[in-house]
Design a protein that fits this description.
Blueprint (H helix, E strand, L loop, with lengths): L2 E5 L2 E3 L5 E8 L8 E6 L5 E7 L6 E2 L8 E6 L4 E6 L8 E8 L10 E4 L3 E5 L2
């Protein structure tokens, strides 16, 4: 059974940076294409980043493009999310997920999900 565990969240001031990690275990094949989503309090889960088979193949929504970078380490079965220039609007629970097929920003395009890690951007 595939399991995803996120880490790296915490409290950071506006303008600060955080690096999230997502370790994928239980794989019998190479780590799949992956995505990150976030859910702010009282709001729906929203797409944050997607990565294909290499760091050259990525996709971001306008809200984070240029500030967030997704990457992967296939040897460690780990995907990362480097977040810079953080804003209060970036606050939420960040979850990683294994991409199956379909639109990058649709939750239904993903199957296995982690429990998430809390990111709070506040002064």
């Amino acid at each position: 059974q595939v399991k995803l565990v996120e880490s790296g969240g915490g409290l950071v001031q506006p303008g600060g940076s955080l690096r999230l990690s997502c370790v994928v275990s239980g794989l019998t094949v190479r780590m799949p294409r992956m995505g990150w989503f976030r859910q702010a309090p009282g709001k729906e889960r929203k797409f944050v980043a997607w990565i294909g088979w290499s760091d050259d193949d990525t996709n971001y929504p306008d809200a984070v493009r240029g500030r967030f970078t997704i990457s992967r380490d296939n040897y460690k079965n780990t995907v990362y999310l480097q977040m810079n220039s953080l804003k209060s609007d970036d606050t939420g629970v960040y979850s990683c997920a294994t991409y199956r097929y379909g639109e990058y920003d649709f939750k239904s395009s993903y199957d296995a999900w982690g429990q998430g890690t809390q990111v709070t951007v506040s002064s």
